Amino acid sequence: VNLDNDVDNCGECKAQCNDPPSGEAACGRANCYIRACDDGWEDCNEDYSDGCEADLSSEEHCGGCYMTCAKGCNDDDCDL
């Protein structure tokens, strides 16, 4: 087993990289990381433990990390 890039044995035997919230896990250099986020989600804080925490349809992350809207978010654009 290659412990450097096996999601079921990442860094050591039986150390599994579980899929983070709203994302897909991977293993590289013996560390778990987020390979990809589900559609509409992003990993803005680069923290594997909370996964892809940013809902890109929210007022706090409208279409991208930290794109804040005052009145709402629709189709990745702030409401006027």
Walk me through the structure.
The protein has 80 residues and is mainly beta. Helix content is 0%, strand content 26%. It is built from no helices and six strands. The strands form three sheets. Strands 1-2 form a two-stranded antiparallel ribbon. A two-stranded antiparallel ribbon has the order 3-4.
Average pLDDT rating? 96
Strand order of the largest sheet: 1-2
Q: What composes the largest sheet? A: 2 strands, antiparallel
Instruction: Label the structural class.
Output: mainly beta
Shape type:
rod-shaped
Distance between the termini: 55 Å
Summarize this, please?
The protein is built from no helices and 6 strands. The protein has strands spanning 23-28, 31-37, 41-42, 54-55, 73-74, 77-78.
